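Bit of a strange request maybe. I'm writing a small parser for structure token strings and I need a real example to test against, not something I typed by hand. Could someone generate the tokens for this chain?
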Amino acid sequence: MYIPSPSSHTAQPATQPSNIRTFRTKANSIPFTPHQTSGVSDLADQPITGAYHEPRTFTDTSPDLYPYLLSRNAITPYPQRTADIAVIETGLSSNVKTYIIMPPTIYGTGTGPFNRLTHQAPTIMRSALLTGEVMQVGADDSDVEYVQVEDLADLYTIVANRIVKDGMQGFPSGERGIYFAGTGKYTWGEFSRGIAKAMYEVGAVKTDEVRKVGLKEAAGHWMGGNELFCELVFGSNVRTQAETSRSLGWKPKKTEQDFHEHYLETAKLFMESQA
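Reply from user aminoacidic:
Good idea to test on real output. This should exercise your parser:
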């Protein structure tokens, strides 16, 4: 299983397909079934630059998700999307079943012994600690989704158990093996204000006001200057329905209240990590 961030995919298309073939070769007649963690930024629009408008709501039962990834990547290559396409294509050519779990914003505190923070909120918090203010690049009225990290882990457990039990019999793989994981909705305005309030409460910044910034400035603070990554990850809209995931028996437990409370929990853990 490969669990990336968008920027970590840059070299991935050249290496991961060969890894799939290697596992298949070593396993001989035993098919290796890889999971890939992707993200719905593969499907996200680009409302800040106006480079792409996407009004549809995607469902993981749709037969056209893979063709959509191909068409979007032909317009604007995106390393994460390129990696997902390579995984699907290599699985098909190597006769290996592949499953891509495509979550939205992951929030909450991990339970493992190493990194327990997620990506998006801590990235904004880190820059706020340096600049003394929380910034926002996405629109106030955006459509974005979330999933709590433990709920997402439950989905992985279900998929892994089904693979061991019966090879995911009756559930799609390859071109149709894309599984969504959204459980609730928020806006970038709400997200930024929640972070600002939390950072103010823990004493990390002197104001809970949010400063709206342009894409270039935000990318410089959050994504090493990469404006495409920044727009897709921090300023886009994306709407999904996790129908196939739920048909597996996935039943997320976390509520909207848990999402609202995560800002302060994450800010406290983030500040502890900086000590």
